[in-house]
What we know:
alpha/beta, nine-stranded mixed beta sheet, globular, binds pyridoxal-5'-phosphate
Amino acid sequence: MPDDPYRAAIGRSRSELETPALLLDLDIARQNIAVMAGHMERAGKSLRPHTKTHKAPQIARLQVDAGAIGVSTATAWEAIAMIDAGVDDILVANEVVGPSRIRALAEATRDGRVTVAVDSAANLDDLSAAAVAAGSVIGVLVEVDVGMNRGGVRSKEEALDVARHAVSLPGIEWRGAMGYEGHCMLEPDRALRVTKQGKAMTHLFEVVDHLAADGIDCEIVSAGGTGTYDLIAAHPRVTELQAGSYVFMDAFHGSLIPGFDVALTVLATVMGRHGDRVILDAGRKGVGIDLMLPSPVGIEATTAFVDEEHTGIDVPASSPLRYGDTVELMAGYGPTTVNLYGRYHVIEGGVVTDIWPVMARYGSDTAVEKGAGTRV
Ligand SMILES: Cc1ncc(COP(=O)(O)O)c(C=O)c1O
């Protein structure tokens, strides 16, 4: 991106940027990547980090270089952005629907190994037809609903129907099962989370065993997120982990597990101070608030509110914060924060050293680039 105006920020200190700005502390992100990679390596499990968190091929590359076997994505467009950048073993941990997306994914699969979650015969038929037309082979995992009540087959019988159909189709390669236990991430009590997660995995393996009894083996069984990564590592049968948020950390995930530091922040400017209330220029259009409010990093302050363009924080009377200062906010939820921005300011040693794009935002940027869709 030689003409990217954001690059003018390279060389500036992290507090000297136009705000709100998305900051990626690469030193901390590398440390988080190493911590997770080391944990999974010691457990003898594969790690396939979820790139919906960062949507940045540069970060995916760091994760693969640190030992990840490939990456997970939420959308076909994220997958294509990763393949285009040379990351070539992708799990789309979600159903891919819609003719342009399926066609684009089938074509991109010629350049990489792609596996997609499926939960219906109709979707399998569409994937198969597109793979045959593109001259590629799409791998599939049956998605099992393990308690989220989102995507996924609802019973082992339904899983068997989908699996039998998958093995019968041209252009489709059967690879196994996936059961993302997202409902467990919403359980703040660790003991209850462990119990719920155990139940979810029991159900997943009842399905896996039911398929095996019919002669359909699962080479891959994928599950888990940041809030359950250690449980997946300790599980005797799950083969790979699809955690994503650990690379950045945010208020929500930080409340679930220790051991990872905050690598992603939003830089904001103090617009005014009124007693103990400080008003910042980053609101909901600049920082994701799903599941938890953002919180200031490195200063004594509590978040009072987050409006569209403002965040209010309360500071002690002794705080030196004043008009024109900058504050960094840890996101309430990292993935929806990243999606608000087109660029990361990459920080090393406290200074901007690079600008990285956020790819496939809203799922469809790549579609527009590839001429497959339109966006207003
Ligand atoms: C299917 C799936 N897998 C994995 C994850 C990763 O979770 P986390 O970002 O909490 O690590 C998510 C998160 O929403 C998900 O939807």
